[in-house]
Amino acid sequence: MPRPELQAPPEIFYNDSEARKYTTSSRIIEIQARISERALELLNLPDDGVPRLLLDIGCGSGLSGETLSENGHHWIGYDISQSMLDVALEREVEGDILHGDMGQGLGLRPGVIDGAISISAVQWLCYADKTSHEPRMRLKAFFGSLYKCLARGARAVLQIYAENMDQSEMIMTYAMRAGFSGGVVVDWPHSSKARKAYLVLTCGPASLQTSLPKAKGEDGEMCSDEDGSGDDENQTVGVYERNRPRKKLKVNKKGKSKGKQWVLKKKEQMRKKGNEVPPDSKYTARKRKAYF
């Protein structure tokens, strides 16, 4: 069967019948519980007995939220499928659920969330289901709003099923541009069925306390550093740096950037020709803002 992302938008694919089928499948329940436990483990919350306020992005019918409740945490669920949320209400999940499109931003207050998880949801943003959808802009809005609502130093663990490497790179690129640090942890990299990729993102710059955990390998063992030294497909841990986009310099027809050195050179040429040229200063070649 083709991937769900290729069949229909999430709010249409997960209709009433599909939502109930998904929630009552014993296999789905087991997989969701296992992945949610792993995501909660990767969040690396302090073990002090204090409940945290967590965000479940793409919560669906609340299967992953149950894992958060069982571990003593409060949570807010966010999903675009009204049918999934209706099933969650029928099941009387303990979390608060919100109906919305994460591609338009989360709309939560800054710094109020202690951690976020997402199970098989973020890759939907890579598809343009409407003429108004632009995957890059939707990823930018999502990661920007996620960064704002997280407390500084908090983590977000996003389990994704990317269709190809281009999707993975696009997702990670916009996460880094939003200000996150972190990388990808791949459990069971040598298995086609059990392989799971987690984006482990920290809200703020990287530090010794925010280093990535090791991935799980065969027989439940943690992968050693040597296991992750192969090619990209078998890589278990990938670390990325924050990469906020820099302002682009103007480029002339020959491809040379018109930076400060270029301006100083032109001014010197004008002086040699006897023209009146303003004196050089620290403001020379500095781009003016669009407002006063």
Give the topology, please.
Elements lengths: L3 H4 L2 H4 L2 H9 L1 H18 L9 E5 L5 H8 L3 E6 L2 H9 L5 E4 L13 E7 L15 H15 E11 L4 H13 L2 E8 L8 E8 L33 E4 L19 H13 L20
Parallel strand pairs: 1-2, 1-4, 2-3, 4-5
Antiparallel strand pairs: 5-7, 6-7, 6-8
Helix pairs in contact: 4-5, 7-8
Short overview:
Helix content is 32%, strand content 18%.
Specify the oligomeric state: single chain
Strand order of the largest sheet: 3-2-1-4-5-7-6-8
The value of Rg in angstroms is 24 Å
Largest sheet: 8 strands, mixed
Low-confidence region ranges: 224-234
Q: Give the mean pLDDT.
A: 84
What is the SS-derived class? Answer: alpha/beta
Fraction of residues in H or I helices: 25-40%
Number of β-strand runs: 8
Count of helical stretches = 9
What proportion strand? 15-25%
What is the H/E string?
HHHHEHEHEEHEHEEEH
> How far apart are the termini?
57 Å
Taken from the alpha-carbon principal axes, the silhouette is: elongated
Structural notes for this entry:
- The chain is of the alpha/beta class and about 290 residues long.
- Helix content is about 30%, strand content about 20%.
- It is built from nine helices and eight strands.
- The protein has helices at about 5, 10-15, 15-25, 25-45, 65-70, 80-90, 135-150, 165-175, 260-270; strands at about 55, 75-80, 95-100, 115-120, 150-160, 180-185, 195-205, 235-240.
- It has an eight-stranded mixed sheet, sandwiched between helices.
- β6 (about 180-185) and β7 (about 195-205) form a beta hairpin.
- α4 (about 25-45) packs across α5 and α7 (about 135-150) packs across α8.
- The radius of gyration is 24 Å and the shape is elongated.
- The protein starts with a helix and ends in a 20-residue tail after the last helix.
- Mean pLDDT is about 85; it is low at about 225-235.
